[in-house]
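Progress narrative, work stream C.
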Amino acid sequence: MTISTLKAPIRYPEPDGSPMAESDPNRDYLIYGVESLKLYFQDSSDVYVSGNLWLSYEQGVSDAAVSPDVFVVFGVENRPRRSYKVWEEQGKTPDWVLEVTSGSTHRKDEQEKPLIYAQMGVSEYFQYDPTGDYLTPALKGRRLTQNGYQIITPNYLENGTLVIPSLVLGLELWLFTNGQLRFFNPQQGEFLRTYREERERGDYEQQRAEQERQEKELLRQRAEQERQRADILAAKLKELGIDPLDLV
């Protein structure tokens, strides 16, 4: 008698509650990258932005998975996911990836990840080193060609700028002299903000609007007081038999 065996189901990586990043700068830039791009693409129903999420790229192979710090996929539904499985997303892999490099990840980010992302067909792969200890320059971009990844040359203007064509509208990464990384939208002439920064901006705009309202009200009250004084003076002049217009 033949004993049949059941093949155990393949378990793909899922969230395990482990910390997102190993240092404050890495965590902060991971959060900034995900939140600011989510806000930027919030009205696009077919753009998915995420980060520190397990991305499985080969069905049937449980360890064929990576967890990009920040990534953007065009042409898939903009909805929450526990993980991203390429074969469940019409074969769509990320169009753009950012890895925030650290002491424990810089070798993998520099050597292994480019091979994996190139194999997946990731159009652009960016790296950022918040401390400047592992990458020179601290901001590096690669664009996929027929011959593999080619380094994107920064446009060093007032600030070190790397254009990100895949993120449309000429979105840019700016690297300030103090090492602060920000996405910049040249069409609107402003940097992208996180949810907290958006709230703070809204609070600031509301406070400024209230201050302007109070200032206008104060000017109106002063104008009204001046008008009342003028009316009182004109009445007194008339009591004395003097036409106020004769004094003009």
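Work stream C, second folded protein:
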Amino acid sequence: MNLDLVTVVVDEYDPAIEFFVGALGFELAEDSPAVTNDGRPKRWVVVRPPGAATGVLLARADGEHQAAAVGAQVAGRVGFFLRVEDFAAAHARMVEAGVRFVTEPRTEPYGRVAVFLDIAGNRWDLLG
């Protein structure tokens, strides 16, 4: 058993792809045409960190209810955790790419950590 995908609801596909691939260094695993349950066109977009088994499904908000969830998927808590081998290098690369960190890096018993926001406004821990 494994966790295959988690969903991040976003406003638009292409800026989200650019953020996850360009700023975070993920790989674009899939970008395929699809349809909604009622037959409207959408895309099936999956990104994942290099070598990771679990991917992130980037789902464009469809309707007011989903649009209200953009950036608030976990009610303002840190809901996603990105572990890297070289914290300092990853943090520097992400800052250079324009990723918005909402905390300064700090050392905890489990390692280095800093909280950043994804393109939708969800909170992530960068862990090293």
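The chain has one domain: 5-127. No further action is required on this item.
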